[in-house]
Amino acid sequence: MESVKGTFGSLTVSREDRMVRFTDTRWSGGRPARRQTKAPHKKSRLAPMVPWAKMQGSLRKVTMLIQILGSLFLPLALLAQVPPAPPAPPAKASEAPALTVDPARLEVIPPGRIRVGSVGPTEKKTLAYTFRNISAAPISLRVGDLSPGVTVQGPALEKPIGAKESAALSMTIDPTDFVGVQRRNVRILTDDPKQGRYMLPVEIVVRPDLTVDQERKSFGDIASHESPQVSFTFLRETDTPLQLRLVSPLPDYLEQEWSSEAKRAELRLTFRPTSVAPGTKLGLETLVVESNAPHQPRFTLYLDWKLRRPVEAAPSRLVFLNPTDKVLGFSLKGRDGQPFTLLDAVIEGQGFTLEPLPKGPATEHKLRVLRSVDTETKAMLVLRFEGQEETLKVPLAYLPASPTKAAK
Question: Alpha helices of 82-175 — where are they, by DSSP H?
Fold first, then answer.
């Protein structure tokens, strides 16, 4: 006996009694509905029998048919088993209906946000408002919320505003202890619960008590014989006496000088090019000034400069780092492409020598320096030029890496 199971039932075939039994479970509510088919017997024992191979071919065809029908009807069966969406819960009887807001009964003049503009650190500003009752019944006003530094007063808050009447309200803003852009607001409520609220937004810009004219300045290009000056000016709005002091250290080539009046102070700086270290051509100085203003206790100032010599060296200093380097070169260029002539050169210190100087005038000369020592050393090359009192100094150094650093 052999049996084959499909999606919707099973098929059983018996060789002995040539019985074909098909069990269908789709339409019987889960109970197999059996259909039995028995091959008819001939009266004669010599009647021909159906070959088993042919029966197997028919069995395979029936199995394929069952599988195809199952793949077609299975999705529909699954959809039929999806439970319906639960119904929405009924509204709670305790929930109160939303409060409706009636049309505005008041007209506010001026409407919207008012931008006051710039005010001093202690300068109070007063704004005038008018509330016009456009309804047919009196209405009363009261203050709901106030921003810091804001006060309101006036007839609009003292008694009800009659129908078709107007009342004034003044707002005063005190910017003390505030700096920069400040937004303030007043919320006005009424005795009509369906009127909502009326907002009075204001924007002001509070100036700082102490200011400086610029935070960054420049000396520009400085010639060796010049001593330029740059000043930083401080102004105070209040009547508090001004106290300032420079707390950052100054380099040797900068000199400071203070001058002050009632509400004004000036920091004057003088540049001394002759005090600049050789090999330095430009710089950016950072200056820190402290004050007695509570909201501006410190100022950070910047000052840049650049030396402009008749002849410049490029690079401005020679540093030997590699022990295998015995010779380094540099060039000399005249300012604005002007020709110049080398008079002489002297090396102050040991460990370096200079190749012979080029002769005659030129807009650019190239020089070579030879190192003659194997230990760390420093020297100074001093160059003099024809027709110029100013000398040019080029630092020389041999700074080999230490054995500890080389190992790392």
Answer: 155-158
